[in-house]
């Protein structure tokens, strides 16, 4: 499982992207999209850690992997101001 400190840190990371305080002009929406994707991944991580009976379908698993890849690609493309 994950500790409370780990969960708080994970939330703080996605909150940083949602705030977009260092985003380049015009890039705030891209930063907020990363935050949305990250929160989705956090929800799945929490589900995996706390729901002993969790079973994802092949489709759900593909969606989670796609979300993670999408987040990584978008993070790499972010610009700061």
How would you describe what is shown here?
- This protein is mainly α.
- Helices cover about 75% and strands about 0% of the residues.
- Helix 1 (about 5-20) runs antiparallel to helix 2 (about 30-50) and helix 2 runs antiparallel to helix 3.
- The chain is flat.
- The mean pLDDT is about 90.
Radius of gyration: 14 Å
Q: What's the overall geometry?
A: flat
Tell me the distance between the termini: 37 Å
Counted by DSSP, the helix tally is 3
* β-strand number: 0
Low-confidence stretches: none
Label the structural class.
mainly alpha
Estimate the strand proportion.
under 5%
- Overall mean pLDDT stands at 91
How would you characterize the largest beta sheet?
none
Following the backbone from N to C, one meets helices and strands in this order, namely: HHH
Helix content: over 70%
Secondary structure elements and pairings:
Blueprint lengths: L3 H16 L8 H23 L7 H20 L4
Question: Can you tag this structure with a few keywords?
Answer:
81 residues; mainly alpha; 3 helices; flat
Short description:
73% of the residues lie in helices and 0% in strands. By secondary structure, it is an all-alpha fold.
């Amino acid at each position: 499982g994950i500790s409370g400190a780990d969960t708080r840190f994970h939330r703080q990371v996605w909150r940083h992207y949602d705030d977009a305080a260092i985003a380049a002009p015009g890039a705030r929406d891209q930063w907020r999209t990363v935050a949305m994707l990250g929160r989705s991944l956090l929800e799945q991580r929490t589900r995996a850690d706390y729901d002993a009976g969790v079973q994802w379908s092949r489709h759900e698993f593909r969606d989670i992997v796609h979300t993670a890849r999408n987040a990584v690609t978008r993070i790499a493309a972010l610009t700061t101001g």
